[in-house]
Amino acid sequence: EIKGLVFDLDGVITDTAERHYLAWKRIADRLGIAIDREWNERLKGISRTESLELILAEKPDCLLDAEEKEQLLKEKNAHYLELIAEITAADILPGISDLLEEAKSGGYRMAIASASKNAPLILERLGLSTVFDAVVDPETLTYNKPHPEIFERAAQALGLETQACIGFEDSLAGIEGIKRAGMPAVAIGIPVFAEWLPDIEVAATKDLKLEEIVRKVTMKE
Ligand code: BG6
Ligand code: MG
Question: Where in the sequence is the active site (predicted)?
Answer without folding.
Answer: 8, 10
